[in-house]
Amino acid sequence: MSSNHPRATHDEQQTARREKLQQARLAEQRAQAVRRRAVIGVSIAAVLALAGGVTLAIGTAKSGGRTTVSADAAPSSAAPLVTPAHTGGDGTVVVYGKPDAPHTLAVYEDFRCPVCKKFETANGGTVQQLADNGTYRIEYHLAAFLDDNLGGKGSITALAAAGAALNQGVDEFKKFHDVLYANQPDERTDGFGDVNRILDLAGQVPGLKTDAFTSAVKDGTYLPWAQKVAAAFTSSGVTGTPTMKLDGKALNLFDANGPVSADSFKQQVGAA
Hints:
Order of helices and strands: HEEEEEHEHHHHHHEEEEEH
Mean pLDDT: 82
CATH class of the largest domain: Alpha Beta
CATH topology of the largest domain: Glutaredoxin
Largest sheet: 6 strands, mixed
Oligomer: single chain
Number of helices: 9
Number of strands: 11
Number of domains: 2
Helix content: 40-55%
């Protein structure tokens, strides 16, 4: 019996060692599985975050005849802020019309917005006529969210150039505003992101394309101002362009057939 005791002890020790090794291998396998799940979880989160960013970057939604805001404001610039002459309010509003007009039409739009162009083409002349005859003054609140929605820099570049036009005069701004909409490229092409294209269009406004204007557009002098204006739009609570409010009351700019008629627009203004 005694001769078998040492063998039994040796076998038991080997069995114990095998069990420990097996337990260690199982523990390592479990640890690897946990690590794999953690990596997969992080990867999925990263993909979802990127997917969300892409959705914001390219998701231009159109609702009720308007392009809806679905992105952050344009990125900030480290360049010094230069505010154009002839701005109104806190320096982010462009006022067109007679200062003593009894009413105010707040206009919210993005130069790259195709829906804004549709309304401008149909009723831009009527909107200006009512401002010119003193019915109301126009306060332009300009956006650049389509750069984030679609990629590129056309909205903010056009807005900065509009600032250079405004620096020369409100009339120059309004004429340049109209030229930009009349020549708006497909929003997906980012045509306004090319300053040379912007300068070519500026040549259609008599007296606008001065050396000072050209330098301001090429140098991006009013880009920080444009970013401030775009940020003010984002903070306004307006969720789509175009939007127009007469003394704070929203007007209906579109019906089932597209932009409302000039008569319908005038009737809304008269009723308000």
